[in-house]
Amino acid sequence: MQRFFSAVPAKTAGLRAGDTVLAVNGTETSSWTAVSSAIRAAGTTPSEIKIMRDGREQTLTITPVQLVRPVVDEQTGQYARNEDGSFKTVSGGFVGISPTSELKPGNLSDVPPNVGHTLARIAGSMWSLPQRVWDLGVTLVTNGDRDANSPVSVVGVSRIAGEVASTDQIDRTSKEATLVSLVASMNLMLFAFNLIPLLPLDGGHVFGALWEATRRAFAKLTRREDPGPFDPIKLMPLTYVVAGAFILMSVILIAADIIKPIRLF
């Protein structure tokens, strides 16, 4: 169940801030995604929305309006783009409601699923990282507007943490939760990034060790001479290219965080 703020045409139908949407057109909705999908699929057809208000269930009739909205990539959480670079859009019903956020105490059993979900999102975003860094570089050169969802460097993370700590728009508990989440996400990102199987990252050394073990196992299986240890020196030209790319990426991100910083408040 999700709580929502209401607006036109939701306000016209009688929805209020704090109402909990239970079902749309007879279909139970346990998440914001389910609510949004059901309303979008309804188009402009009058729809019945079951809500919980002050401990009592009510059913309201609401007529959505047609609206074109950008598509969000479920893996990365970013706006999806077409091949030509334009944003993907979808047309569907819209009633003017949005979810609220509410902090609830968790337990240790919640940690593994959240870590796994975060790592999955990080892995998905890494595929688009080179393109996003390129787009950010173009933004700097052309003095364009920076995308709020663009990648940031350690400088950007520090600025964001400073804004969260100094703002008076959220309470202390929300600040603490946000800062802990920020630090955890940054460490998971570094962990995943360091596992990329390229030297000089740790993932490159792991890949080299696995390749060496595979070669020796295959030689033993086929009764051939032990090929010996893997020589990483052979990959030095590629290592120089990778290191250079990382340095260039760092320069672009740090410059963007200084010249065009992302601001939350």
TrEMBL record:
GO cellular component labels = membrane
How does the UniProt record describe the way this protein sits in the membrane?
A: Multi-pass membrane protein
Gene Ontology MF terms = metalloendopeptidase activity
Entry's family note? Belongs to the peptidase M50B family.
Q: Show the InterPro entries listed in the entry.
A: PDZ_6, PDZ_sf, Pept_M50_Zn, Peptidase_M50
Q: Where in the cell is it found?
A: Membrane
Q: Does the keyword Zinc apply?
A: yes
Which Gene Ontology terms describe the biological processes this protein takes part in?
proteolysis
Residue ranges constituting the PDZ domain according to the UniProt record: 9-50
Q: Does the keyword Ligase apply?
A: no
Record SUPFAM superfamilies = PDZ domain-like
- What cofactor is needed? Zn(2+)
| Alphabetized Pfam families for the sequence | PDZ_6 (PF17820), Peptidase_M50 (PF02163)
Residue span, Peptidase M50 domain: 145-218
Which UniProt keyword terms apply here?
Hydrolase, Membrane, Metalloprotease, Protease, Transmembrane, Transmembrane helix, Zinc
Q: Which residues cross the membrane?
A: 179-199, 238-259
Q: What is this protein called?
A: Membrane-associated zinc metalloprotease
Database matches in Gene3D superfamilies: 2.30.42.10
**Protein species of origin:** Rothia aeria
Query: Chief localization class?
Result: membrane
